[in-house]
């Protein structure tokens, strides 16, 4: 795995409008003193005012491709080379698959080979599609989703601590939770011989986000202060009171580790709550140490526990298979990658008549670059 490196970013504001900046990035501000009430912090607070993003709108890769287009235009018009361009969530799904084959693990992704004039063709994947048999989230699951967003709200402030007023800090939890707001990092990375351009949501920065031009005026790699080193992943989990809860948490850590690892995020903070949604405490985890922690657990078993090296190896093989299986001459054709729960294989097939899911601005920009050569 090549060290991930952020090269651009974008934000969604409260109206879900795309902004080419880091204005929606939060900054960590989480004190155990804030939880020192009789029952802990009530994560259900404000649920009746929750502003939810329209889940019926399929945004495909739009934000990522529009941001990539803008970056290329502002940096001499040079194409950003990559074999895979996708969201971090798609890679996480594949990376965890060897250890999550049961239950609701069925998924389907769209893939297309685009822009073969690049030194290396670019494969793009759309968001996953839910099975037609899936049911809408029930009230309990919706509430539990809200707890995660509420934890992010109470754990962050809108600017670095030194730039925030006392009022901004003390009233940070008074506004309605709005999950339209997101900050996304776009990184370059690689796995085996596959080069990747990956976009992923970042929950917050632990202290500040470095400015590349300020910290690295001569573009010296040794002086480069990688923004990814400052990012933090935030999660919630039920308080662990018994062995079953501990085993379930260790299984959950697979996804926490995978999505943080893929984006180069070094730290994860897990808030522990009661079944009724009262936040009791939180714990920090160093992402790179999580796989070793699992192997040292008293619950570890080679046949039943997850293994980080195996997950990485499977993802590398899967991406290499995708890269070499889709013919470059079929530029723009859409393929489907499908997995059916409990099966032992992935299916890759053409999708005749499937409309392109690429943003028209990106398509037009890359076409313009081809014709100018």
Reconstruct the topology from this structure:
Blueprint: E1 2-12, E2 18-19, E3 27-28, E4 41-42, H1 62-74, E5 84-87, H2 88-96, E6 107-114, E7 122-125, H3 139-154, E8 156-157, H4 166-170, E9 182-191, E10 194-201, E11 204-205, H5 212-215, E12 231-238, H6 243-263, E13 267-273, E14 278-286, H7 290-296, H8 308-325, E15 334-339, E16 347-350, H9 360-371
Parallel strand pairs: 5-7, 5-10, 12-13
Antiparallel strand pairs: 1-2, 1-9, 3-8, 4-14, 6-7, 6-15, 9-10, 11-12, 13-14, 15-16
Helix pairs in contact: 1-9, 2-6, 2-8
Write structural notes for this entry.
This protein is an alpha+beta fold and 373 residues long. The protein is 28% helix and 24% strand. The longest helix is centred in the last third of the chain and has 21 residues, at 243-263. The two termini are 33 Å apart. Mean pLDDT is 88; it is low at 116-135 and 213-218.
């Amino acid at each position: 795995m090549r060290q991930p490196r952020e090269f651009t970013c974008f934000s969604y504001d409260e109206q879900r409008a795309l902004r080419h900046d880091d204005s929606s990035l939060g900054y960590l501000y989480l004190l155990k003193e804030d939880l020192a009430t009789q029952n802990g912090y009530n994560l259900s607070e404000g649920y009746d005012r929750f502003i939810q993003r329209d889940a019926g709108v399929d945004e495909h890769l739009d934000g990522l491709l529009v941001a990539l287009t803008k970056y290329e235009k502002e940096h001499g018009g040079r194409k950003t080379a990559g074999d895979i361009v996708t969201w971090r969530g798609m890679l996480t799904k594949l990376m965890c698959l060897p250890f999550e084959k049961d239950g609701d693990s069925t998924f389907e992704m769209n893939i297309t080979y685009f822009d073969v004039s690049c030194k290396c063709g670019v494969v793009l994947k759309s968001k996953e599609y839910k099975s037609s048999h899936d049911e809408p989230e029930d009230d309990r699951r919706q509430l539990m989703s809200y707890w995660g967003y509420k934890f992010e709200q109470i754990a962050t402030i809108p600017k670095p601590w030194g730039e925030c007023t006392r009022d901004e800090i003390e009233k940070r939890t008074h506004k309605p939770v709005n999950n339209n707001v997101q900050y996304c990092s776009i990184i370059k990375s690689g796995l085996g011989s596959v080069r990747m351009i990956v976009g992923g949501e970042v929950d917050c920065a632990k202290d500040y986000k470095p400015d590349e031009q300020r910290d690295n005026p001569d573009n010296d790699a040794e002086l480069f202060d990688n923004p990814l080193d400052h990012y933090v992943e935030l999660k919630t989990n039920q308080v662990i009171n018994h062995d079953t809860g501990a085993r379930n948490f260790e299984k959950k850590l697979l996804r926490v580790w995978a999505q943080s690892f893929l984006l180069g995020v070094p730290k994860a903070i897990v808030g522990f709550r009661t079944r009724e949604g009262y936040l009791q405490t939180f714990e920090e985890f160093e992402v790179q140490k999580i796989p070793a922690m699992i192997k040292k657990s008293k619950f570890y078993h080679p046949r039943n526990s997850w293994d980080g090296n195996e997950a990485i190896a499977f993802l590398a093989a899967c991406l290499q298979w995708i890269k070499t299986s889709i013919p470059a001459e079929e530029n723009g054709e859409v393929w489907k990658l499908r997995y059916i729960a409990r099966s032992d294989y992935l299916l890759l097939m053409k999708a005749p008549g499937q409309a392109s899911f690429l943003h028209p601005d990106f398509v037009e920009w890359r076409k313009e670059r081809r014709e100018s050569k």
